[in-house]
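The following block was generated as part of the benchmark described in Methods. Ligand: iron/sulfur cluster.
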Amino acid sequence: MTYKIYTLGCKVNEYESEVMKDILNNNGYYESSEPDICIINTCTVTNQADSKSRKLIRNVKKNYPSALIIAVGCMIQNKRETLEELDIDIALGNKDKSKIIDYIKEYKGKHIEQFYNIDQMEFEDMTLNNFDLTRAYIKIQDGCDNYCAYCIIPYVRGHVRCKKKDIVIKEATTLIKNGHKEIVLTGIHTGNYHDGEYDFANLLNDLTKVEGLERLRISSIEATELNDRVLEVIKNNKVLTNHMHIPLQAGSDTILNLMNRKYNTKEFKEKIKEIRTIRPQMSITTDVIVGFPGETPELFEETINTIKEIGFTKIHVFPYSKREGTKAATMKNQIDGNVKKERVKRLLQLSKELEKDYMKKYVNTKIEFIPEVYKDGYLIGHTENYLLIKAKGNEELLHNTVTIKTKEIDYPYLISEVLEKLTI
Ligand code: SF4
């Protein structure tokens, strides 16, 4: 039987789709453009993600009318009451993705759906020996207990639960043995990782000791989780990349408070200063939500000023999206859509300027990168501090560590020339 997987959303979803693919391949199924089975791994983080998920399910059904349609993940978990009109054959929420084969075998033409009480969900063990990308993701954790006022995730992913440390370390060792040079640690609330008393600092420290690992990247981490022990590990281990993604969400204390974020701007700025003291080259990217209820023009200006003061390398900008069931959805002073659009535009413009300023520091320098894609005679990939490189070169250099000389900015790329191949 053949299959095709469609993935929306975050790195955790990408990881889980890779796991489903691995399981299907190991059970004699083949990936194909003419699938007998279509799996859609959905997202519900914003209204837009919801409608994208629904639209994708409809399009897949139309394109492959005789295929078995399986829809899984956050939108399915969040909107189970509204699934009937989508007419899905098998609907799974946020558990049992690793049991996809059992559901396929169980299906006898009658609709199957499986949902669990998210408050009682155990961590669903999943591991990968290989990853389809140069940079291999490892899902180390699931769920979140922070309940930020705008966020639907705790309601669809459940409480914090983590993969056993020995399983994480074994998975990393296998991925490296199979040729991956970079590991990206991912989760819903990555920094909240723990296995009993063993916490994120312990895990980072042990992973940096895995032989053959060239780069260890943290996909995203809350400022509040960058405690002294984590910073000490970052200070002492160059394997940890000079790039961190630390969500700010807003640069005004009034809005941070309304969002139920766990820090204020002073604490956030102090944390960034600490990081730059131990790693002056650190590239720091972030997430910012604009148009949160109550965000007056003055409070938005505060966000702009805080961002400029911190000097991020890049900002992922999100217009506030009202999610039913969250605290913010019932707040007064909801912001007009056009105002949100205007603020998104301003922040994206600022982000581009900040990113170019950071790139300028690396023009005419000799650095390393790992090509991830080969296109039209060019190798494209990231440096450890997450600069996007484009260099003329030979396809055989893909997935290897390569030394380059950077020449000029052709946004979003740093155009470069290959000097030598470092690793086989
Ligand atoms: S920390 Fe906040 S924004 Fe992040 S997943 Fe948890 S509730 Fe959502």
